[in-house]
Write a structure and sequence with these properties.
D-Maltodextrin-Binding Protein, domain 2, alpha/beta, 5-stranded mixed sheet, 2 domains
Length: about 220
């Protein structure tokens, strides 16, 4: 499963078209982009790349602010509570649409308090494990998990994130139990895998690329 990034901004019911009505004067001041994941994550990297180009085109500074935690809901709440003037933007992953189903309560209404602008791209994920774990194939990983029910764990960037859902689909299809260990973002989760404290992780490919060591029929991080 790939994680889709979406650029959204806060609006209030009845004023969704306000920024468009004043398009000839917008923007007249710096913009703020909130990323609800940690620096160095795939979402953060794309947000900063797009913001740099957007700043040039709009002739206004754009400040990128990381507000990680709780599967992206902390950063989303910051944007939802900001002034609905089109100057506070949120770059989020596909988990933004999933959180109403994975959290009993949220401090915002995903539908009423946000308006989508444009998708920024799809980020593929790669299943990574530490070489020392000696899993050389998916079959090795599944066999080990079945042999020790409930003893294996996996990382994610938070409840409801693409990594969480990918791992659950994998776990269910493999018919084994594993403990979900959420982190604030991909860099932290990947570090825990490399330190062998976490067994596996469906990591966005971007932060994993420098450490990937893949041969046909194998999986792992160098």
């Amino acid at each position: 499963m790939a994680s889709r990034l979406l650029l959204v901004f806060t609006v209030l019911t009845g004023v969704a078209l306000a920024p468009l009505a004043h398009a000839q004067t917008w923007p007249t001041k710096p913009l703020r982009v909130v990323v609800p994941f940690t620096p160095g994550s795939a979402t953060d990297t794309i947000a900063r790349t797009v913001s740099a180009q957007l700043s040039t085109q709009l002739a206004q500074p754009i400040v990128v602010e990381n507000r990680p935690g709780a599967g992206g809901t902390i950063g989303a709440a910051v944007v939802a509570k900001s002034d609905p003037d089109g100057y506070t933007l949120l770059v989020h992953s596909s988990s933004h649409t999933v959180t109403p189903s994975t959290y009993a309560t949220l401090p915002y209404d995903t539908v009423a308090e946000f308006a989508g602008i444009t998708p920024l791209g799809n980020i593929p994920s790669v299943l990574v494990v530490a070489p020392a774990k000696a899993f050389r194939s998916l079959a090795d990983l599944v066999t080990a998990a079945r042999a020790r029910p409930g003893s294996m764990n996996y990382a994610s960037a938070g409840q409801g994130s693409a990594a969480h859902l990918n791992a659950e689909r994998f776990r269910l299809s493999g018919r084994f139990e594993a403990v979900h260990v959420p982190f604030r973002g991909a860099p932290e989760a990947l570090t825990e895998v490399m330190q062998e404290r976490v067994d596996f992780y469906f990591c966005p490919v971007l932060p994993a690329l420098p450490m990937l060591s893949v041969r046909p029929g194998t999986l792992g991080v160098a």
